[in-house]
Design brief:
alpha+beta; 8 strands; 34% helix; minor pseudopilin epsh fold; 3 helices; 4-stranded antiparallel sheet; elongated; 2 domains
């Protein structure tokens, strides 16, 4: 190759190539901003999943400790803004675990208390309804088995 070809040859980018890089960077930036904007925002889905996990944990604790465990939503009568898990003791109830907050952007109504007995069953069927952003999730308990699950309504 001649020296002039290195200096004046095909070493730069065409306008199309540069434009494609700018568009690609713009698309990636837009995707990341949308994802970051939704992080940390509680939704009915994430709250329903957490409630189901806590109900299953209470059931498991009732089986392993051979003591009834209760998940109670507050304020009594709803709409609910938090819930706690308790273990039944001879002298009363003892809170186990943390108090879970329910965002005020989520409408939470339904059954206010679930009690799991030492065999894993619940004392009654129940449903908690969580609604936000036009989506409704129902968290259900089947009394005979104590099974907790959620579904999009």
């Amino acid at each position: 190759m001649k020296r002039n070809q290195w200096i004046h040859g095909d070493l730069g980018f065409t306008t199309i190539e540069a434009l494609m890089v700018v568009v690609l960077i713009g698309v990636l930036t837009m995707i990341s901003v949308i994802r970051i904007g939704t992080l940390g925002r509680p939704t009915a889905y994430t709250t329903a999943r957490q409630l189901v996990a806590d109900l299953r944990q209470a059931r498991s604790l009732a089986i392993t400790s051979a003591k009834s465990h209760i998940v109670r939503l507050y304020p009594s009568g709803g709409p609910y803004s938090e819930y706690k898990t308790f273990r039944s003791e001879i002298g009363g109830e003892v809170q186990v675990g943390v108090t879970r907050q329910i965002s005020n952007k989520i409408a939470c109504t339904g059954t206010g208390e679930f009690t799991f007995q030492s065999l894993g069953n619940a004392t009654s069927d129940g449903t908690v309804v969580l609604v936000s952003a036009g989506r409704q999730y129902d968290v259900n308990i089947i009394a005979a088995t104590g099974r907790a699950y959620e579904f999009l309504h």
